[in-house]
Amino acid sequence: MRRYFLGKVLQAFLTLVFVLLFNFVLFRVMPGDPATLLLRGTSNFNPDTVEQVRADLGLDKPLPQQFLTYVADTATLNFGESFFLRGRPAREVIVDRIGPTLLLVGTSTIVSAIVGLIIGIYGGWRRGSAFDVGSLGFTLFVYAMPEFWFGMLVLMAFGAGVGPFPALFPTGGYDTPAADLTGFAHAIDVLNHMVMPFFVLTVAYLGEYAIIMRSSLLDILGDDFVQTARAKGVREKQVLWQHAVPNALLPTLTLTLLSLGYVFSGAITVEWVFSWPGLGWLTVQAVEAKDFALLQGLFLLFSVAVIVANVVADLLYAYLDPRVRAA
Amino acid sequence: MRPPPIEPPIVAPPVIVEEAPPPVPPGGPGKIAWARRRRSLSRSWRVYRKNVMGMAGLLTLILFIAVALFAPLLADREALKVTCECNGPPLSPPSIDFPFGTDNYGRSVLALTIWGSRISLLVGLLATSVAMLIGAVIGLVAGYFGRWSETLLMRITDWFLVIPFLPLAIVLASVLGGGLFVIIMVIGVTSWPSTARIVRAQVLSVKTRPYVERGRALGATNWHTMTRHILPNVGPLIFANTILTVAIAILSETTLSFLGLGDPLSISWGTILEFAFGGGAMGGGQWWWIIPPGLAIVFVVLAFTMCGFALDEILNPRLRER
A31 contacts in B (CB within 8 Å)? Predict the structure, then answer.
């Protein structure tokens, strides 16, 4: 177990080094010198100032030294200054946006996992029933649709109000800025803003869980121990909930854990559609402003979250299923 | 970004049901092999034809491909231009002249959607080809040669699998500057790892089979063994995987274009949605501007997915109805 644990952690560490290298190389080979990009459009854009900025950014040093500086900076969470929010450290900008993203994507991940699980269990148990066929069709449809498109439709129907649909919810943002609410009233206001993006994300994520749960339940139901349970005369309900479901839960649990790694980066387009001031919208803003310092920091954060979630999922899996450890 | 894509299950090659050995056709071993492959193909097709989901997907696909191919017959290319005289009043709801209404320049949304199918399908197919090429080569080499090349290649594969796909694609596309070619390469370069893994797993099982050993004993080179014995056996698997990857590639193109990383001059379903979003179609309630390109994406992706699942069911005996 210890060997397994160390192996996984080492692997994750290597992946992280890869990410750092990638981040470093990519943002240095890109067309257009960062110093030029930074100064373009400002009044003091001339060769001297470009040289000055290059020196400030450390771009005149040899590459290995630049890399070490980059690693040291990253280790101390110094991501450099954001271009488009001129002068603000990228880290500060990112930290500001973490809360809203966690709130929105975290809750919708958990709710969609639970609802998806239940749909998957009922579908798999009554394979071929109207419910199963209906939920499979729905799942496929949701899988095939871009989440931001669904978001646009929901926003149009219930935010702006079109035809028969009433405009029920605010069309975007995190809260009502002018209202200056505090405490409970503020929480209600935020929830009110969250309803639509939450709904969109939950529906968009549902399918994955339902499909995984359904197929793993079907796998388990074909196993011998289920037949044994039935042969012993165990009630059908008990066969499902006490024998089949606990064993079928494992893959879904892993998927949920892995998805939690995507909490930061999971809702890039949906956050943008609903102007939800989280990391996703920040990413779009960074792309539009060509703010590479910010983009670099965001990419690192997104990757680290996923790497950590992967390690946790691996370890939990090994803990719950001894066969994995032995392999 | 949705949670990590479901990795398609590892597909075993079709089980060859021993039939009475057909009369040996005249000609060399190549001819015999091809005759056998043709028989196997027509057997798979017979099974596929009975699969309702697969046939529905296939018909939808044929319809969309026909629309893309015959776009010039269905809608005048001029209608894509902002300055075209054929344009109607801006943002007019569906009418007889403009069945899907018009956008903020008065362009016919129907014409945009028809022409958009070309770019969307093209990017999806080309990006998938890139991904399949990379994935197949890496999987083959890693599986066949093993040792350090396997360790190294699988490390790289794992890295690409772990790194969140959409942020990676966004970062790559925005650093490289966007545009059609960049988008194709970016999607291709980020979506090969699951193929590489599946191919490698299959190669590992195929290369231990007796006929490969027999070939080697007869003096077959690595190249011959790989291209004549291993590749044909991994082929169906790569094909099934391709179909599923196209669906993901089309969705990715849509997302990247929506984020403004596509080519603003070539209309795809993603760019139409980007324009609609930027033009405030939601606030204005111009549903006819949003629904057609979105539904087109849904149907095409659905069609590819259904074909992929159906193929999977045929090629993977484990999945057949118990």
Answer: 176-177
